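Handout, tutorial session.
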Amino acid sequence: MTTMHEVDYKIYGDDMQYVEVELDPMEAAVAEAGGMMYMDDGIEMETIFGDGSQQNSGFLGALVSAGKRLLTGESLFMTVFQNRGAGKKRVAFGAPYPGKIIPVHLAEIGGELIAQKDAFLCAAKGVSVGIAFNKKIGAGLFGGEGFIMERLQGDGWAFIHAGGTMYQRDLAPGELLRVDTGCIVAFQPKVDFDIQFVGKIKSALFGGEGLFFATLRGPGRIWLQSLPFSRMANRIIAAAPKAGGSGREEGSILGGLGRLIDGDNS
């Protein structure tokens, strides 16, 4: 059985946050490659297969763990940051885009969390980061962002990231909430997750929304985000200048007048 590392932490910032994890000697944290912000002298980095939670099952177990991560579109490798020095040392991990970092103590919510595949930031070493398939055919065919999700298991701290403003809610037994699939950050496994058809084609085609949305039915805790990264990226791409032409701005007539006033005749 893998021993969890009981780390201390502190979250800094408002909209662009980072989490600083304090490690006792030989304690370690695990994170996605490229997520580290800074670390004290005495902390050593090691790139590993998977998440490091299969350390007692040898190379085959590590390979299986890594393979599960590959199915979610993530890297085969993760990075372990271990305190090899004397005394407490600190390592910090930065959020990938504006939003909130959510600390979750897995032991307090039943030892398991289902998270959006891009939500995981870092965790205490020993937390397992696997894959969570939804068995329902509707979610499988039409789930999009919400279909292949990550399963975090263990009894230590895990840190996930929500874009924009985070919304946490405890659903009562049978309570139903309809959500845009991209706005789901995480939920407890006892929450029933499915994908439903909007029903009215006009609403989907002309209302600017998708043809499908997610349903979350209680009991259980859920975390939502107001700004999925995909939504932000689509807006940036739509507003970016086109190759060989001028940028497309909202309100083309006003946009054109603005460029003339600014002296942009290109």
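The second record follows below. Compare its token runs with those of the first.
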Amino acid sequence: MATRIATIPRKDWKRPSARRVQAVRQRLRELYGIPVIGPHGDPLGELVLTVLSQSTNDRNRDVAFLRLRSRFASWEEVRAAPVAEIEAAIRPGGISKVKSQRIHDILEAIGDPLDLEWMRDAPLAESQAYLCALPGVGRKTAACVLCFSFGLPDVPVDTHVSRVCTRLGLLRPGAPFEELHNELARITPEGAALEFHMNLLRHGRRTCHARSPGCGGCALARMCPSRAI
């Protein structure tokens, strides 16, 4: 078992050096390589996909998304459809009643044109604020849209990324998710947002588990202050 990480007050927290962050990034690269996927350029699709990903696994999310896209020819058609039809299309993704209403409300809030392409060249803070003002959209969802669609420097922080980063001393233990997102975006090397997210996620899923982390076989153990001794 990993040692329990005590919450550190913000006033006592010292941000990690750029050298340390680069060392962690390089070690993760050696383990998992550099992701070959690049920004896909579909922010609206990413937004809906992220809503569908909530409280389900990747397979069910993808099935729901593909059913939605095959049922409706455009996002305008999804917006105009009765919520019950959206719910029927995404039912395999779970919690379909809640998610269908949320998707409808988001598309309504965006209005016309139903397009988020402007975010590619907009100030990052402006895009973050716009997305977080949409119904049911939080900081992580906004980061997914900006990072995966355009490769912008906003790193999504899920439970895996948060756990790995706090154990490695990259982020403050006990910090709220808003702070975690802001700080990880701040310390991530330029141009590495998607790579850093993917490799931290992989490490959390494969080795740095929540209850029984594999510290004995972890390639980052020597640089981890939270490793089991």
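Points raised in discussion: The radius of gyration is 19 Å.
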